[in-house]
Amino acid sequence: MAVRESRIRSRRPACAVAAVAAAALVAAVPTVAAGETAPPAPVPAPSASAPPAEKPAGEPAGKPAGEPAGKPAGTPAEKPAVPPAFGAYLDYGARGVARMDELSRWLGDAELRVGHTYLPGDRWSNIEGAPGFLDVWADWRTRKADRMLVLNVPMMERNEEHVGDDEVRALLSQGAAGRFDQHFRALAEHLVALKVPDTVLVLGWEMNGTTYTHRCGPDPEAWKTYWNRIVTTMRSVPGQKFRFDFAPSRGRDAVPWTQCYPGDATVDIIGMDSYDQPRGMPFDEQVKEPYGLQAHVDFAKAHGKPVSYPEWGLFRNGDNAAYMRRMLAWMDEHKPVYNTVTDYCPHGVFQCDDNPRSTAVYRSVLFGRTDDPAAEPADPQTPEPTPTTPPATPTAPPVPPVPSTTPARPADCSPLELGDWVEHWLGGKLCLRLDWYARNNASDK
Fold this sequence. Notes:
InterPro entries: GH, GH26_dom
Family: Belongs to the glycosyl hydrolase 26 family.
Order of helices and strands: EHEHHEHHEHEEEHHEHEHEHEH
Pfam family, one: Glyco_hydro_26
Strand content: 5-15%
Low-confidence stretches: 1-5, 14-39, 46-80, 373-394, 402-408, 420-427
Number of strands: 11
CATH class of the largest domain: Alpha Beta
Active site: 206, 311
Domain GH26: 66-379
Mean pLDDT: 78
CATH superfamily of the largest domain: Glycosidases
Shape: globular
């Protein structure tokens, strides 16, 4: 299978690091001494890092040892889990935080529980979290207890500089040996100090492709060892409750993403970045293709992990309302821990005017959606109060019809049949105005 085309990334932080990066370069890192010991064994995630409200649908709740199966008669039924969280990537910095409220209002005050941003991958000092960069996101996260901060974390500096395979292979070997541990320890300490120790970390995303220096393909074994080393280092920081999201791009891409999976002990969520590509591929094929959407949920189920969709949106197939409707339905069915649409052109819906039909579908499906526990069914043993007036239901505009691609024929104009080849060369049909004689005679007077 051909390698997937890279997406436009002009809105990512790698192209705007001057606004967030410290001016000084990171001091040179000493090389690994000969005979260095093997990396430490991965530390499993603490159980507190996966709140019960975000377990996959159908997963049984834990019970104390020795508790009998079933429930005594008259025991109130458990309330359903909080619905899966959703949000959008709106911008990498403070503007992204500000636009969360705008998007919520546009969606009829829908509850956006997920804030999503990316650490710049240009230099190690920014991967550690440049001063001031994460503060606004931490402030947004801590305002409400049920919010979630999702942070994409590069595994290498110079992450989008098209570093060659030989150099990537050497860097992965150095990372597996522990050369870069201090940067990830600094990031973990920074997040804990900002009071966001439960951040979801999308570490080394789209590792199965060719775009990033942190890609897996040149040496999958070293990549997996390096991932495990990063997770172990960050989990060693006191106070942390991080969850680590392994998120390849959909499909085989450069290498099968299953070859990069580092193991259940260091992965909390199995995500997937899934855009509407390649050109001409219908949604059913995106589901069924090797390493596609169905393979993703099957793999996660086999490993006892929930799924996520950190990046998704339109792409090679333009304003594709069918994709938008099917992808939203897919996520409603498979209950990811979270999903965040990539909201800039060509992928987006709120900040992109190029996709009006897909925008209308997105808005109509999510308009007014809320995760407010007060909206959940009450205890069945408590009678429901009788409403005096029916509740107001938010409405969204209907999906506009597909615009016609046939040009309207001018009035008083008769088309000339010149043949397919001539019409192709001319770029369309010619027509003869029926009033040409009258207009010409009038001009002579």
